[in-house]
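not sure who needs this but someone in the group chat was asking about 4-hydroxythreonine-4-phosphate dehydrogenase from Sulfuritalea hydrogenivorans sk43H so here u go. i didnt clean anything up, its just raw.
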Amino acid sequence: MSNTAAKTASGHNSTLPVIAVTSGEPAGVGPDICLRLAQRKWPARLVVLGDRELLAARAAMLGLDANAIEIHHVPLPKSALAGRLDPANARYVLDLLDVALAGCIRGEFAAMVTAPVQKSIINDAGIAFSGHTEYLAEHTGTPRVVMMLAGAGLRVALATTHLALKDVPAAITKSELETTIRILHADMRNKFGIARPRILVAGLNPHAGEGGHMGREEIEVIGPVLDKLRAEGMDLVGPLPADTLFTRNVLAGSDAQLAMYHDQGLAVLKYAAFDEGINVTLGLPIIRTSVDHGTALDLAGTGKASPTSLFAAVDAAIDMASRRSN
Ligand SMILES: NC(=O)c1ccc[n+]([C@@H]2O[C@H](COP(=O)([O-])OP(=O)(O)OC[C@H]3O[C@@H](n4cnc5c(N)ncnc54)[C@H](O)[C@@H]3O)[C@@H](O)[C@H]2O)c1
Ligand SMILES: N[C@H](C(=O)O)[C@H](O)COP(=O)(O)O
């Protein structure tokens, strides 16, 4: 099966891209929001990866019909209860990713879209895991990828992702930062169709280091990398004080914003766009998008979880897949 050629014998439209949607942590809201994909007509064939009984049980709780979505059955080792994490099901969450990734690499899926996982329970089960981003990089043999969340007109990429705040300064080296900006720049063109992206780059320290009086990373690391890449023709602005980078006047005309660490950028993005935000992994050989929220264990099975971020992530994956196939 090609990523646009479904089995016509089973009634699928053979010209639509096939998108894998992993339903994520079984105790979280992932199954709930995946069931809600049936609310919309999509210009794609969506295949939800998950345990058939789990999805049927969650659908019953929510008054929905699990038969309204296409399910690729991946078995749970143990039945899952909404809101109740169980390390016995941690491997299942990774199985979903492995099936989706293998399908993308074989060309059966045009893209994968991920519902949220609970990083802590995977680690509690004895499997080192810091996020989809890092997992997919490792499992595709990609040395460096970039996490970017987008919504409300912002595209916020991160120079560092899931690591302790105390480890951030050492992780921002000239070579890592240069690679990050190159990936961001290339994928703004390839995945978003922006010919000459203008990228704002945040400093690390308050007031971008205040001329070296509040930290020297801007002078010793960030500034020289920007100068080098500007000399190649990239449109880069910074290092800018992060507290005002996201004000309207500074943002005007920019295509993406690079934050130095997770919460420097994502607090702003989630404030501005929590209902519509998406997460994209740049630099991967496959297309992967995701929701901008977590497992929301408090909402699983209640019907209160909004599916709109998942809808936006699916829309974005379909767009990127169509750009790639053109
Ligand atoms: N893409 C992902 O896999 C992803 C993304 C973010 C967080 N996480 C993980 O999720 C777990 C819980 O994280 P958290 O508590 O920091 O964030 P969270 O996003 O799960 O919850 C934060 C708040 O937002 C609400 N919320 C979340 N999703 C919602 C939705 N769809 N509709 C309405 N309200 C929603 C929750 O009820 C909660 O009040 C952690 O393990 C974290 O690592 C995973
Ligand atoms: N940093 C993301 C966020 O806050 O939304 C989230 O943890 C998901 O990351 P992965 O896509 O790497 O799982």
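also The radius of gyration is 20 Å. if thats useful
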